[in-house]
Amino acid sequence: QSLSAATAVAGVLVLARSVRMTTKFTSALDIPMEFIGKNVKLRGKLHHVTEKGLEVEHIPISIPFITLLQRKWQSKGLLLVRLAGVELAPSGVAWLQQELKPEQMIWFQLLGREDLALECLVLVNKGRFLSLCLNEEILRQGLGRTARIEGLHHDSPLYWKLHKRLLRAELKALKKNKGIWKEESYSERVRDRISNNKFVQTLKQFVSWLRSS
Prior knowledge:
It is a single-pass membrane protein. InterPro entries: C3orf33-like, SNase_OB-fold_sf. The chain is an alpha+beta fold. It has one domain: CATH 2.40.50.90. It has eight helices and eight strands, in the order H-H-E-E-H-E-E-H-E-E-E-H-E-H-H-H. The strands form two sheets. It has a five-stranded mixed barrel. A hairpin with a 4-residue loop joins strand 1 and strand 2 (about 55-60). The protein is elongated, with a radius of gyration of 25 Å. The relative contact order is 0.11.
């Protein structure tokens, strides 16, 4: 009897785990903290790219019998996924809108949750065995800046491991004067030329003389 009871309990636990893994999440608040703490990777279908982040339809693991039952009561909704550790420039949003296609499948690894948004590493497939991390690619293109990775403890090994990856990507854009770094270097040159212009210098001296007198 004890063996049968243990088997039954094990079966219930396996079923519960299967239900959790096959549940379609329609809100960030639906995702268990255990998933976020373990940095679980989820799959989804892209719907929109907005200034707030990516609106993604979660596509759970499919198990024929369980999935069929769940579809009858699962609600509809999209998850708001943000690129963790990245402060997007307007040109970065435009780049994502151009590069990502509606209905495109993406993977997002959970790092944290802030209000109704998920902080994630976002991956897209670039072939059978290749994938591209959008967080790093945005920084490599100079279309954003590194920022604090929300949701991860500042002193955790994972935080610094990911932060170093993002800083290296940003440094490549900085060295090549790409994206926002090119714009900033150009504006600096313009400011230098204006400040070094003889007419501007004479005008400054005249203004100083007026103030002193």
